Amino acid sequence: MNNKVFSVTELCEMGKSIARLEGNRDLNEKAIKGKIKSMKVFGQLVPAIVVDADTARKQGLKVVDFVTGEEVTEQNEASYVVLLDANHRYEAHLRLMAANDKVKEEADKYTGEFYLVYALNPTVAIDKALAEINIATTPWKGADFVKGAKMMVEAELPVLDAIAEATSEGMSLDAASKVFLFNGKVNKSVLVRAINGSIDECLLNTSGLERGRRILEAAKGCFGSDFIKTRIWVDWVISIYENTDDADKGQFTDDMVSFLAGIKREDAEPLEKAKGKRGGQSKDTIINEGLNALWAKRRKAVLAA
Question: Please, which contacts does 70-75 make with residues 24 or more away whose CB atoms are closer than 8 Å?
Fold first, then answer.
């Protein structure tokens, strides 16, 4: 079937099923609903790209059944093809098919088919093909780049692990990088290079990892998740660090953790609800001034004690 568009029905007749790469981008409910709406009207306009499961497994990638999530092994790999793209479209297709059971009128039922085509250039390694498909054709978001790097990089990278955990909880890539490195050097370009086998120095730098973990956990104790996701409070923490005398920087983490742990909800809520006004202060400015005031109040109390 190479270079030929074929249907899932044909695939099933051959005794094969659909699988996906474990670690590929998470399914986004909003994206799925958008695909459902589109496919109800237009069907599938572009075939999904697949490779054989044994090809993916030979390249060191973990493959799982699309529906059950069970790992595909050497014993059953011949019964699967693996989606390199179109995970959201295929999930939408499955849901539309399942919804037919509740549709009374035949004319109202979803009758679309799902089409597949093998990757046209089999000489390209799957990791590079996946990166190119998802970066150039269907743009990834920051967390998707992190997941892609986690899936493709074999080396142990504690910084990448920490950033992956933070972004999986909704934190922006920029904010996560700044928490653990005190800079935004782990960006999309760095992660693309990692996917393609080149590891930048910033992904090897673990010197600020424990500091970042402690500060992040302390912040989670006083601020809500939506506030934590943003880079604003992280930028403020970094600014305080940069303005701390070198002689006092060894104590900085303990001081910042103590400060964040001491913020009360009545002080945190105005910062979480801050909104900039046209012609007035920006949201960033309001939050920074609020944090500065709380920091100054704490420092004054410490000196008084």
Answer: 71/22, 72/19
C-alpha span between 278 and 294 (Å, rounded): 25
Structure tokens at 273: 């609800």
Residue 212 CA neighbour count, 13 Å, CB half: 25
Distance CA 4, CA 47 (A): 10
State the DSSP code for 26: P
Residue 264 contacts residue 300 (beta carbons within 8 Å)? no
Distances (CA, A) of 67 to 72, 78, 82, 229, 255: 12, 17, 12, 30, 48
Output the six-digit token pair for 22: 């474990």
Q: Max Cα separation, the chain?
A: 79
Nearest-angstrom CA–CA distance, 176 and 163: 5
Q: pLDDT digit of tens for each residue in the chain (305 aa)? A: 667 888 999 999 999 999 998 877 677 888 889 899 888 888 888 889 999 999 999 988 899 999 999 999 999 999 999 998 888 999 999 999 999 888 888 888 888 899 999 887 777 777 777 766 665 555 667 788 888 788 778 788 999 999 999 998 889 999 999 999 999 899 888 888 888 788 999 999 999 999 999 999 999 999 999 999 989 999 999 999 999 999 988 999 999 999 999 999 999 999 999 887 777 788 999 999 999 999 998 888 777 76
Cβ neighbours for 301, distance < 8 A, ≥ 6 positions apart: none
- Residue 225 contacts residue 241 (beta carbons within 8 Å): no
Give the pTM: 0.60
**Cβ atoms of 72 and 53 closer than 8 Å:** yes
- CA–CA distance from 301 to each of 84, 295, 305 (Å)? 57, 10, 6
Cα separation, 176 vs 87, in Å, equals 26
Query: Which candidate, 242, 253, 170, 263, places its Cα nearest to that of 213?
Result: 253
